[in-house]
Design brief:
By secondary structure, the protein is mainly alpha-helical. It has a single domain, classed as Helix Hairpins (Orthogonal Bundle), CATH 1.10.287. It is 45% helix and 8% strand. It has a two-stranded antiparallel ribbon with strand order 1-2. The radius of gyration is 20 Å and the shape is globular.
Length: 128
């Protein structure tokens, strides 16, 4: 019997997922300019454009909370564009999620006891 050990931490998975999604080519990220960052109204218009692009629908209460998160993300992405970077960030489909929400949705979690996960692999069906 072969034994497979899954010792991947949530942090590693999160780092890889963020690297892949945030460094995605601009074609799959919504583009924005300095003018989009100038006022709350222009940021709201950007959020509405982003929502339409990714077909994100939120109820009124959740939309305001998500908008606050989105503004922080947009400002962070824009600030990184001002520096001399060798990579490109953009507003992808996760732009209105908090880091905790992203982790809960996409990162693997270690068992509560901190141990490794393992599964015994057995042949379920004989071939031939």
């Amino acid at each position: 019997m072969a034994r497979v050990t899954l010792a991947t931490t949530g942090t590693f998975v999160l780092a890889v997922a963020l690297a892949l999604t945030l460094a995605a080519p601009p074609a799959i990220c919504i583009e924005f300019t300095a003018e989009d960052m100038e006022s709350n109204d222009s940021m709201w218009a950007l959020y509405e454009r982003w929502s339409a692009h990714y077909e994100v629908a939120r109820d009124a209460g959740d939309k305001l909370r998500r908008f606050r998160v989105f503004k922080e993300t947009a400002r962070s992405v824009y600030a990184r564009h001002l520096g001399d970077r060798h990579y490109m960030l953009g507003l992808n489909s996760f732009a209105d999620m908090t880091m905790d929400e992203f982790r809960d949705a996409f990162a693997c979690k270690r068992p509560a006891n901190g141990g490794e996960r393992h599964f015994d692999i057995t042949q379920q069906v004989r071939c031939g």
